[in-house]
């Protein structure tokens, strides 16, 4: 039997957050419910950010209230500050994620804070999460390239990763936010990060803007990563990263991993159905 690799589904959050059409809560709930039957352990489906910054995520509490929770699945939410964390707890998210950047330009554009300020904002979230036993994941954006600052030095990513891990994040997801990473730049970044955070606590979060996400996943597998974020139907982008295409599509990653001999434990026919639903949502055809 092949070695296990986990796909962390982020379509209902990272995917949908960038869609221009206001998507009804009922459609988001239908997508999550479909994904819940596919065999994921973790599905990110909510984001408790300012609705002025990301209007699409405004109904996140209703989404968490409306879904049918499958046993063994953790439903995750983004939380940029204490208010977001409290809202996520009230909405019964199973885990939360703080999100930082490895470049100052993106940090400012995305969360209106320097990297240092953002880390300071996360400290009370980490303390409150520890008290109630809530797992916290840590994202780092722009791990190889930033739309504002250009190439990102690997040491910068390693420093932010070490800080988030040291604060208690159980896993660090490394975001190629604008999909400009190459197997070479991803590998150089990972080598620097792995010196500070073990590979088994890292995840690759690759956008497919330049069509290199699968090659970047292969480079990451070679360095020991076994968790990858993906969005069903290749939904997504980031509202504060101009030109960012969707996350790498879950169905492509699942097929690629299976062809490479890895086990994902996913039901590919359910994923195909969810991908179809995602495409219809994008086109405004309803689901
Ligand atoms: P700010 O404007 O600096 O802060 O935003 P503020 O405290 O002045 O708040 C502005 C308004 O938002 C206020 O309302 C607050 O009450 C409200 P007003 O007084 O103007 O009516 N507010 C909130 N409302 C709901 N929930 C909250 C919340 N906090 C404040 N939690 C802030 C700072 C962080 C809030 C803002 O910049 C923000 O929400 N940014 C989020 C941007 C975002 O969600 N980006 C996409 C997610 S990151 C991503 O996609 C990358 C990733 O996928 C990895 C990768 O690909 O790289 C993770
Ligand atoms: Mg992303």
UniProtKB/TrEMBL annotation:
Record's keyword annotation contains Nuclease: no
Which Pfam families has this protein been placed in?
HMGL-like (PF00682)
- Pathway in which the depicted protein is active: Metabolic intermediate metabolism; (S)-3-hydroxy-3-methylglutaryl-CoA degradation; acetoacetate from (S)-3-hydroxy-3-methylglutaryl-CoA: step 1/1
Record-level Gene Ontology MF annotations: hydroxymethylglutaryl-CoA lyase activity; metal ion binding
The UniProt record lists the Pyruvate carboxyltransferase domain at 5-272
Enzyme Commission identifier(s): 4.1.3.4
Q: Does the keyword Disulfide bond apply?
A: no
**Keyword terms of this UniProt record:** Lyase, Metal-binding
Residue ranges annotated as transmembrane are none
Q: Which GO terms describe its biological process?
A: ketone body biosynthetic process; L-leucine catabolic process
Q: Which NCBIfam families match?
A: PRK05692.1 (NF004283)
In the record, the note on similarity to other proteins reads: Belongs to the HMG-CoA lyase family.
The identity of this protein, by name, is hydroxymethylglutaryl-CoA lyase
């Amino acid at each position: 039997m092949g070695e296990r690799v986990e796909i962390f589904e982020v379509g209902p959050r990272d995917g949908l957050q960038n869609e221009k059409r206001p998507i009804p809560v009922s459609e988001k709930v239908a997508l999550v419910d479909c994904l819940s039957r596919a065999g994921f352990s973790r599905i990110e489906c909510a984001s408790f950010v300012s609705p002025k910054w990301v209007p699409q995520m405004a109904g996140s509490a209703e989404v968490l209230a409306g879904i049918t929770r499958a046993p063994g699945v953790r439903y995750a939410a983004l939380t940029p500050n204490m208010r977001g964390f409290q809202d996520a707890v009230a909405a019964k998210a199973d885990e939360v994620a703080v999100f930082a950047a490895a470049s100052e330009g993106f940090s400012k554009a995305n969360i209106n804070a320097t990297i240092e300020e953002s880390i300071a904002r996360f400290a009370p979230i980490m303390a409150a999460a520890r008290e109630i036993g809530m797992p916290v994941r840590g994202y780092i954006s722009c791990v190889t390239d930033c739309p504002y600052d250009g190439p990102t030095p690997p040491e910068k990513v390693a420093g932010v990763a070490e800080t988030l891990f040291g604060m208690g994040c159980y896993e660090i997801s490394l975001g190629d936010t604008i999909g400009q990473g190459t197997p070479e730049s991803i590998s150089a970044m990972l080598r620097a990060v792995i010196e500070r955070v073990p590979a088994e606590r890292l995840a690759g979060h690759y956008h497919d803007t330049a069509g290199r996400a699968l090659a970047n996943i292969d480079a990451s597998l070679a360095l020991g990563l076994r968790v990858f974020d993906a969005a069903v139907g290749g939904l997504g982008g980031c509202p504060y990263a101009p030109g960012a295409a969707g996350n790498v599509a879950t169905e492509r990653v699942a097929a690629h991993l299976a062809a490479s001999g890895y086990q994902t434990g996913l039901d590919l026919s359910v994923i195909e159905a969810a991908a179809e639903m995602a495409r219809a949502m994008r086109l405004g055809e309803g689901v």
